[in-house]
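Thread: Modeling a multi-component assembly for a lab meeting

Hi all, long-time lurker, first post. My supervisor asked me to bring a structural picture of a complex we are working on to next week's group meeting, and I have zero experience with this. I have the sequence lines for every component (428 residues in total). Could someone generate the structure of the whole assembly? Inputs are pasted exactly as I received them:
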Amino acid sequence: MSKEAKIPNPTIKRLAVYSRPLEILLETGPPVISSQKLAGLCGVNPAQVRKDLAYFGEFGIRGVGYDIRDLLHAIKGILATDRKWSLCIVGMGHLGSSLVQSENFKKRGYIVKAAFDSDARKTGKKLSCGLTIQAASSISEAVQALDIEIGLITTPPHEAQRVAHLLQEGGVGAILNFTTIQIRTRKKCIIENADLSVKFENLVYHLEQLDKKG
Amino acid sequence: MSKEAKIPNPTIKRLAVYSRPLEILLETGPPVISSQKLAGLCGVNPAQVRKDLAYFGEFGIRGVGYDIRDLLHAIKGILATDRKWSLCIVGMGHLGSSLVQSENFKKRGYIVKAAFDSDARKTGKKLSCGLTIQAASSISEAVQALDIEIGLITTPPHEAQRVAHLLQEGGVGAILNFTTIQIRTRKKCIIENADLSVKFENLVYHLEQLDKKG
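Re: Modeling a multi-component assembly
Sure thing. I ran the full set together rather than chain by chain. Output:
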């Protein structure tokens, strides 16, 4: 396992990307794939694929390719996506509600165990997934009781910092922050930002540059 | 404008991040902010803030700080977020439906002009935002007629490549791809991936590493 700890972050991100077409091929395709083919499906170059996969041992057979089932199994082991993770979502607006219902999450082993909102008109409401929306004030207690590992924040920006604090008090190890606010943490906790509007602004900047050129 | 073209990509991404607290402060805070304070709110170091902002001229007054209104205006000009952009969304599942209804998008000038789905049970349905879901087969025509600049793909993965092709035929300049599939394009078109599951896998990998360390 000591070897795995040295895998660089860009490789980890690409492993997740590699696993996508492999999942589809596992159900429909041939049992083996070449680094060339996998690279093409993922939009990276074949040498990069071979280099990334070499980090965790010998998988490919020269001139034949990778066994899809073995490779996917290994990647999922590395990424720790071969186990279930328990989540909660705070903020039952449009985005939060859509994430609660995501079949894709469940399929990937991310189990939403609780949903919270600070709006008293929403708390107590039963969601189609079976969960009942709980008051934001009960976050710490519920997170601890349900042993929730990851918290998603889809609240209005001004609530995000307070919610992050409650999630950490309850003991989550990671927070995925969908708001436009940068969250500060005191304890050891992984924060990942998933603010869509930053992605948008990057996109339109480049679009504008293209328009100027031609 | 030639100077702007040289702004590096990481700076562009940080400009979007800087604009968030500035927007909030513009409504509630003092008229001026120091690079120290702005850096703290954004989780970057003050030298980085000063360096990034220096790319587009002299804004700060030494010992005083930046005029919040001027700075925000300049950032929005650079990022091209001071104008409206027209979008369409293809795939009216949970995520697509939540994005169509996003008040946050509209507030930022991203106007959703059309919504599509390939499911005949969904087409013709009127959404609460006033749009009617159109058949995916009419994407090219509608995109061209409505002069849509950006396409969001929230379909099942196996439909994404075909949809991307139709969007490009209609003339979009950029695609934001929420599916797990890498999209290939023939024409000049900006593709940005917003696959949440890659973000998740990165998060749980690091969480697992932390757990191992104890």
